[in-house]
Amino acid sequence: MSDEFLDQELIEEEEESHLTRRALFVTGGVAAAGLTALGSPASRAFAAASATQIKIAVVTHGDTGSFWSVFKRGVDQAKKDLKSRGVSVTQVYANNNVPKQVAGINAAIANGAKIIATSVPDASALRGPLQKASSKGIEIITVNSGLGAFDSLPTYEVHVGQTEDVAGKGAGKQFKKAGAKKVLIVIHEASNSGLQQRAAGVKSVLGGANVKVLTIPNAKSDIPGTKAKVKAAFNADKKLDAFLGLDPDVTIPCISSVPKGTKIGTFDVGGAIKQIQAGKMLFAIDQQQYLQGYLPVVFAVLYATNLNTVGNGQPVLTGPGIINKANAAKVAALAKQGTR
């Protein structure tokens, strides 16, 4: 990834508190072991040594909208790339339906999954089924959300995603550079701890008094209601001059609900690229969800065939990157391929 794309201050903060992305990828051998060697004699030996099919279950709280459809393409591509290794991948997208996600994990256990990759927006809701999976020797990988929630499980391997508080700080710095005085943040999933961490990161940069958090449960399923609540918040507090949505499916519809001249940012990409190019949005925090879908499948196969592990107790970070007007055209070209 080019220096133009990544916000240097974000990189420096991550390097202070985590292993660098470069170190994680080199020491974990992702590219060398997982990708370039797929057709090598070593990989064929791995496949021959695996007498049974490698069953991988991907179970998320997501939908199949603009964000999760790209995540799914990552899963699908990894499944295709690793098909010769005897890989079988099942996928569940629960759309914030906790019982459905729990049922998906339990089904994976019953069907003999060797590895479960799951998002964890609410650790308490998934504690029982994931403890059960671990007690049966099933390897656990968390994706997208749930960093640190299940590190104590004996079969827990790694978290693949962005560090939400660092990403939130990145958003805060973008607003600070733009001269924003007070930001309205909409949290669209009330129980998602990752969204709360993003808001906390913004507050740590701008100060709590300069950030107003509006929690709208199921905001994506009631866009007219969400727009009305956002408009009411701006009418009620004239100091607000900036708006941050934590999902483009929430942020973009609300552009028309905020006063003209409001500084707008979002988390994740979706249709945000066009809005940035048109000058209607300042930036998008890009957590590169294609990687969040692709990498867990690769890691799962490397573990099942060669007992490889990655991370050394630290997360494998996907981003965060900053998309702004300077690099939006480059990302837009990749988005047309469905990978951003």
Q: Quote the distance from N terminus to C terminus.
A: 13 Å
Rg, Cα atoms, Å: 20 Å
Largest sheet: 6 strands, parallel
Helicity, as a percent range: 40-55%
Strand order, biggest sheet? 2-1-3-4-5-11
- What is the structural class? alpha/beta
In sequence order, what are the helices and strands, one letter per element?
A: HHHHEHEHEHEEHEHEHEHEHEHEEH
On the 0 to 100 scale, the average pLDDT is: 87
Q: What's the overall geometry?
A: globular
The residue ranges in which pLDDT falls below 50 over 5 or more consecutive positions are 1-51
Number of strands: 12
What is the beta-strand fraction? 15-25%
| Discrete helix count | 14
How would you describe this structure to a colleague?
With 340 residues, the chain is α/β, with parallel strands linked by helices. 45% of the residues lie in helices and 17% in strands. A six-stranded parallel sheet has the order 2-1-3-4-5-11, with helices on both faces. A six-stranded mixed sheet has the order 7-6-8-9-10-12, with helices on both faces. β9 (263-267), α12 (272-277) and β10 (283-286) form a beta-alpha-beta unit. α1 packs antiparallel against α8. The longest helix is centred in the C-terminal third of the chain and has 18 residues, at 289-306. It starts with 7 loop residues before the first helix and ends in a 5-residue tail after the last helix. Mean pLDDT is 87; it is low at 1-51.
